[in-house]
Every structure is written in C-alpha cells, then in structure tokens.
TrEMBL record:
Protein name listed in UniProt: Transposase
Entry superkingdom: Bacteria
Length: 51
C-alpha cells in the first residue's frame, strides 16, 4: 500500500526585528523575534522533517 505524504506550506517574512510566519494548513500567523533562541524554538514546532 502506498504511503500518503502531506506537505505543509509555510511562509516567512524576515525583517530586522522580527519574523512573521504563516502556516497554511493551520491558518496560523505568528510574530517571532529575530533572535537565535526564538527562531530555534519556532523551528522545533514545525512538522517533521521540516527542521
């Protein structure tokens, strides 16, 4: 049996102070500080194998 593969669509607008992210599958818009610890935390929330 074939395995189903789902794809997530994630958009990121990068600015000096913050990142604005959008996840289409959950219709989620988020603002993330443009700082390494905050970006790492956000990456851990993404569906695998994204990060």
């Amino acid at each position: 049996m074939a395995m189903r593969v789902s794809k997530s669509v994630i958009g990121v607008d990068v600015a000096k102070i913050e990142l604005v992210t959008y996840q289409a599958d959950s219709d989620l818009l988020a603002l993330i500080p443009n700082e390494k610890p905050a970006i790492k935390r956000w990456l851990k929330t993404l569906p695998r194998p994204a990060a």
